[in-house]
């Protein structure tokens, strides 16, 4: 399998700041990755510091003055990587409530609705179907600070909102779950995509209640408790405006067919 992904971003900086980008793909052991990443501020190249985080998250960080910043990232991934490793840290951390996946507010409801399925593929299928049928995918319908509770009450959201609700429900029935930002060939409208991962049958399995792209071709960018850990851009101290964001993600050949009842890992 050959996948080509990329992002072009333009940011207007109106007050000096520190920027952090998470747009580079995570390490892909056993696959070949060819990539380029450029930051240019008012025509001058900027050299970022790459910070390696948990799960291979790659944060590119630098201080920037006032001006127009252009970012250009491209990567080609040839082959597939191993399924994500599992640690005792994962089993502990990803059962806990978090800022946008408030599992503690779903304990009673989730136990009643999904408690009989246990740790199983059937559980993932039912949670994915339940979330997918109760939410409408409506760009602009949610705020960046909305969590799973607000999403359920509003009945609408975008990919991160779907993923937060899936994560919260799974944690509430004692299944470790987390959020992953990905490049998603086939997704429409094309953008950075967010999905959930759940620990089932000895591996991390991907759940995408939006059904907007086949899970078999997803490319991992960042992994964490929720969107606070995986945001593609963080701004500290200053002021910025996002002028442009163009994301691309394609796979050679036809997109694979996906079925909600399949257990799929991000590779």
Automatic annotation (TrEMBL):
InterPro entries: Papain-like_cys_pep_sf (IPR038765), Transglutaminase-like (IPR002931)
Pfam families: Transglut_core
Domain Transglutaminase-like: 151-211
PANTHER family membership: BLL5557 PROTEIN, BLR5614 PROTEIN-RELATED
Name of protein: Transglutaminase domain-containing protein
Organism: Mycobacterium europaeum
